Amino acid sequence: MNESECIPYRQTGYFSELILDYLDHNPQLQNYISGFPEVQSFKERIESRQSFSAEKRQILADSLLQQYQETGIEPNPELLEQIESLKSEKTFTVTTGHQLNILTGPLYFIYKIVSTINLSKQLKEAYPEYNFVPIYWMASEDHDFEEISFINLFGGRLKWVNDFKGPVGHMPPFGMGKVIDELEEHLGPGKQAEEILSILRNGYHEHPNLSQATRWVVHELFKSEGLVILDADRPELKQQMLPHFKTDLFEDRIHRKVQEQSDALGQKYFAQVFPRPINLFYLKPGLRERIEYKDGEWLVLNTDIRFNESELKSELENHPERFSPNVVLRPLYQEVILPNLAYIGGGGELAYWFQLKSMFDDQAVPFPLLILRNSVLLCPEKWRNRLADLNLDPRELFQDLNDLKRNYIKERFPKDVELKDFDEQLEKMFEDLEAIAELTDRSMLGAVNAQRQKQLNGIENLRKKLIRAEKRRSSEQMEKLERAYLALFPKGGLQERHDNLTPYYASYGKGLIQRLLKDLDPLDFRFTIVRL
């Protein structure tokens, strides 16, 4: 394997101005955050979390142990030590969250987890007197099955068809065996292919729901790294959110605070989420629907379920597990139940966190540091060699395909085809003609300028024709360039948002994950090109 290299995010063209300004420590963003993303900022975050109670720590540790037992995972010594350490006032968490995409979904899910693990290790080096536990928060309460139901593979798509309604974490994985069989056909034979297929089969065949299946798979991939996997769809954890659920249901403060901050942020940037007067869903088997207030009652949309105030308060107290936070309240839930210091996410995720700090302040919950996850381009040797044949570097691919082709041809043109000398000679000639017209008859200046433009247009048209001729001459190179580009930037977008882990695991095995753990630095905010 080869060394990795990095490219500044600003040079990639794939990141929003908000995220780039944040990474540049733009002071205009200070009101929206708890600090800029650097090791020194964690000192203050640690201090802000000293008040996290021993009772909450005990509940968290007990819940996690029970979750692993229910999944049939016997925690190894490293994992057991991590969970037990959460009871200590010296232990804090670093968290990432993600949907329960089948078969691990897009590659960036893996990069999120690696970023979280590596940041925890870096913090231990910087603050050795404390412990830092990486957490993967499973978005088990999401109900958008379509988003998680497929993976892209070798130019096609593997899809799980299921008509289950309700939170995806509750879904029984019926039919996933067929999807994995289809995956096996695509991956073909090989020890490493068999290894990843075995992990997936044990995950989806041996567990009753998607939440447990996902926990199994992710645990198998990272079990030696101390990663702790949390499903927060638990009554003992939601009990801690009751004061905040009540605020959301019976007061307008959360909606108002988020809207005010979103409006302020929206003066320069784009808002990612839009708060509602009520930011909770109601959960029951096969059901996750929004709650709305109307005419003195709280209605569960698309059902006949309704509550008056006393009934709703009773339901909250007796069944907190039936209330599910939306995208606005989920971050608050996370920070209420975890002694958390930082959230690691992609650019789109972090963008909506910038809308939330005033809500956290209003609810007296510490706001975490926001860390942009690592972004990665995996560049296998086959495609590196193809690029080398074209005298191209992977870093040059961070542009639109048409721009890449145009720039490629221009840079490799014979100088006489560029016609630059002709431009300069024409300009010089018409400057001389202008001077003569100025001395003899100023009324001729218009004719001189018209003739200049005509000649320049003629040269430009000739240049375009020559470029087209060069394109035809080098069409074979263009085809090679396009194949390499689309292999590394599928459909013209980032590989990490399209490709799935399994074909890379089939080629490189566990060594790929170890390579990512070695190469990715979550506080080096540059795009990483991993040369495989």
From TrEMBL:
Identify the residues that the record assigns to the Bacillithiol biosynthesis BshC C-terminal coiled-coil domain, covering every copy.
Answer: 377-532
- The enzyme's main class, written as a single word, is ligase
Bacillithiol biosynthesis BshC N-terminal Rossmann-like domain residues are 4-374
> Where do the coiled-coil regions begin and end?
419-484
Q: What is its EC number?
A: 6.-.-.-
Determine if Transmembrane is one of this entry's keywords. no
Its keywords, alphabetically, are:
Coiled coil, Ligase
Q: Which GO terms describe its molecular function?
A: ligase activity
Q: Cite the InterPro entries for this sequence.
A: Bacillithiol_biosynth_BshC, CC_BshC, Rossmann-like_BshC
Q: Which family does it belong to?
A: Belongs to the BshC family.
Q: Which HAMAP family does this entry report, sorted A to Z?
A: BshC (MF_01867)
Provide the protein name: Putative cysteine ligase BshC
Q: Which organism is it from?
A: Croceimicrobium hydrocarbonivorans
Identify the coding gene: bshC
